[in-house]
Specification:
Layout lengths: L1 H27 L5 E2 L22 E12 L13 E10 L4 E8 L4 E11 L2 E2 L7 E11 L18 E12 L4 E12 L10 E14 L2 E11 L10 E9 L2 E8 L6 H5 L12 E11 L9
Antiparallel strand pairs: 1-6, 2-3, 2-14, 3-4, 4-5, 5-7, 7-8, 8-9, 9-10, 10-11, 11-12, 12-13, 13-14
Length: 296
């Protein structure tokens, strides 16, 4: 009997020891960090760039439409008799890199750009708290120049504009996303010695989701360094509505341009004079992925 009990204790001890080892194995298994997706609905907040890029192999076509000033009321139907438009083709090369081309009627600017994710927000063990992107753009202003530029050589190089921007943000929770946008804009050609070729600014932007398809968005840019007396700090506030493959954004802003230089450095609206601009962005996504199925 004693011998039987000894064998039982031995087997029970081995079982308990093996169970502890198995639990230790499960304890040592680490969960991979999970990417935090959809901080914003579109690639723009309102005027400002967002933390998003098109998905891989997706071509996004965006129309950025800005009406005239609302100050004349019903005379020109709150500025809707006039318009400034930017066309934007934006391609997602992979889940980190995108690039595109655009054309703005404001100052008749053509541009090419790159937008890339340097780091992505994740959750879970070993997570990273922020998304960090870089946006780099080269534009050429093709609008005919006034007499202010008569003494300057209006060649191709002098008309170039260089924009470099970091986009640093976080999806705080399911409803709120925030970002900051340190920005540098360099213009080879300026009207006079009173204007600096290079200007720095600091942007703030955010989104608050009210329903799964509807959110309130806003962005604001604060200048770093001196500006001329006519300079206005850029702001925009509006809402997003997503339906099918479209993202529709409506906003009001003190800037009529939708290219970075034209809304960050050339805003001219004044709330006290009711000089503000209604506008909208509408984007459509097209898949460029190849299909293995035959079409008849």
């Amino acid at each position: 009997m004693k011998k039987s009990l000894t064998i039982f204790h031995l087997i029970w001890g081995i079982f308990l020891h093996g169970q502890d080892d198995l639990l230790d194995i499960f304890d040592n298994v680490k969960e991979e960090p999970v990417l935090v997706e959809s901080a914003f609905k579109g690639t723009r907040v309102a005027n400002a760039q967002s933390l998003e890029i098109p998905k891989p192999k997706i071509l996004q076509f965006m129309i950025q439409h800005r009406f005239g000033s609302i100050e004349n009321g019903f005379y020109d139907l709150f500025g809707t008799d006039y318009a400034m438009i930017r066309y934007d083709f934006h391609y997602g090369y992979n889940d980190r890199i995108s690039f595109g081309v655009g054309r703005s009627s404001f100052d008749k600017i053509y541009d090419i750009f790159l937008k890339a994710k340097l780091a992505r927000q994740t959750k879970g063990e070993g997570s990273f708290p922020l998304s960090i992107l870089i946006y780099s753009d080269v534009g050429i202003e093709t609008m005919r120049k006034s007499e202010d530029y008569a003494s300057v050589n209006n060649n191709f190089l002098n008309r170039l504009i260089y924009i470099n921007q970091f986009i640093i943000g976080r999806k705080i929770n399911r409803k709120l996303s925030l970002e900051v946008l340190p920005t540098s804009i360099y213009r080879n050609l300026v009207p006079s010695d009173d204007f600096n070729h290079q200007q720095f600014s600091f942007g703030l932007a955010g989104r608050y989701k009210l329903t799964p398809m509807f959110s309130i968005n806003a962005d604001y840019f604060y200048p770093i360094g001196s500006r001329n007396d006519n300079y206005k700090k850029s702001f925009a506030i509006g809402f997003d509505y997503e339906t099918g493959g479209h993202v529709f954004q409506v906003m009001i802003s003190n800037a009529q341009g939708s290219y970075e230089n034209t809304f960050i450095e050339s805003a001219n609206g004044d709330i006290s004079k009711n000089r503000l601009y209604l506008g909208f962005n509408i984007s459509r996504a097209f898949s460029l992925k190849s299909s293995n199925s035959d079409n008849w």
